[in-house]
Design brief:
This protein is α/β, with parallel strands linked by helices. It has 12 helices and 9 strands. The protein folds into 3 domains: 128 residues, 3-Layer(aba) Sandwich (Rossmann fold); 40 residues, no CATH class; 117 residues, no CATH class. The strands form 3 sheets. It has a 5-stranded parallel beta sheet, with helices on both faces. Bound molecules: iron/sulfur cluster (SF4) (2 copies).
Length: 328
């Protein structure tokens, strides 16, 4: 009988929901566990870095890494896992595009630490405790990982073979990827493992859109009574469906909420936020003479970065691989 492939899981800067998505494969997890050996999964079992160091290069057939890269420990671990793995999968929006943690790229590490340790309204820090790279006392010297100035999607640190999108990826998608690996049915290297079509193309509300969609106002979801049976964009809510790839079974739309874009852009789109802005620009019904009114409508988007780049700021052209901000 052929030997079972060994797989690994690792968790970087993320909330842990992607690991939940793996566990949520539920009874299907038994088929997976029967078909593979789990060689490294520190969130579930007591594995250490040394376990990875001890195996030969390429030992893990597939490694699933969720979370963005925020510090030097994560960087070191993913580089080590890359060396020890045949295939590396970026699991979930944070590994794929930087995710919500990469919204922190709007500020600096000093600002973040300052706020968290000194200025936040809920901080009590009478001793002025503050993270240092090295801690020493008479008996010990401890070195902390370096906290980077920005958050990186996984492919800005190591070579990635495949991307499993979503925040979190649906369990069915995770199970499907496992089956594809086992059957040897993976597509070309570099693929995002969900259909390369927009969410609108599969959305059950798409038919409620008129042939030419034009809108005169933008609304914020928490200030609006949303009609769950009418396209959200048609109602003036920013729904990222036109700029987001499908594959999630429209779970937010079914829940009565506009899409926030967690599956990321379609193939070939360099910047998901700009893609959505361009879609929005084509449906806002204003003439050049109505610039002032248009400004007023745009101004209603309370949080443009969080609206258009909620999951993709780390991978956007504003925060490119060289670490420079676009326009600077
Ligand atoms: S804009 Fe949103 S609600 Fe409308 S069809 Fe697209 S995904 Fe569905
Ligand atoms: S509807 Fe949008 S935000 Fe919600 S799960 Fe699907 S892709 Fe992600």
């Amino acid at each position: 009988m052929a030997e079972k492939p060994t797989v690994a899981f690792y968790w970087c800067a993320s909330c842990g929901g992607c690991e939940e998505a793996v566990v949520d494969v539920a009874h299907g997890i038994l088929d997976i566990v029967n078909a593979v050996n789990i060689g490294f999964w520190p969130v579930a079992l007591d594995f250490k870095k040394g376990d990875v160091e001890d195996v030969p290069d390429g030992f893990y057939a597939a490694t699933f890494i969720n979370g963005a890269i925020r510090n030097s420990e994560q960087e070191e671990m993913v580089k080590l896992l890359r060396k020890k793995s045949g295939l590396v999968f970026a699991l979930g929006a944070c590994a794929h595009l930087g995710g919500i943690p990469s919204l922190a790229n709007l500020t600096s590490k000093e600002e973040i630490l300052e706020y968290v340790y000194r200025r936040s309204p809920s901080t009590e820090n009478a001793q002025n405790t503050y993270p240092a790279k090295v801690y020493r006392d008479a008996a010990i010297k401890l070195e902390l990982p370096e906290f980077f100035d920005r958050v990186y999607p996984l492919n800005q640190i190591i070579d990635v073979d495949y991307y499993i999108p979503g925040c979190a990826p649906p369990s069915e998608l995770v199970a499907d990827v496992f089956m594809k690996i086992l059957k040897g049915e993976l597509p070309k290297k570099g693929a995002v493992l969900s259909p390369n079509k927009s969410l609108c193309s599969s959305c059950f509300l798409n038919d409620t859109k008129p042939e030419k969609l034009l809108i005169k106002e933008l609304k914020r979801p928490h200030l609006t009574v949303i009609d769950p049976d009418k396209c959200f964009l048609l109602q003036g809510l920013v729904c990222m469906g036109p700029a987001t790839r499908t594959g999630c079974n429209e779970r937010c739309i079914h829940g009565g909420m506009p899409c926030r874009g967690c599956f990321g852009p379609l193939d070939g789109v360099l910047d998901q936020g700009l893609s959505m802005l361009s879609a929005l620009g084509s449906i806002l019904d204003f003439t050049p003479e109505q610039e002032k009114e248009l400004d007023g409508v745009i101004g209603k988007i309370g949080d443009p970065a969080g609206t258009f780049y909620r999951f993709s700021l780390g991978a956007s052209i504003f925060y490119r691989q060289d670490g420079k901000r676009g326009g600077e």
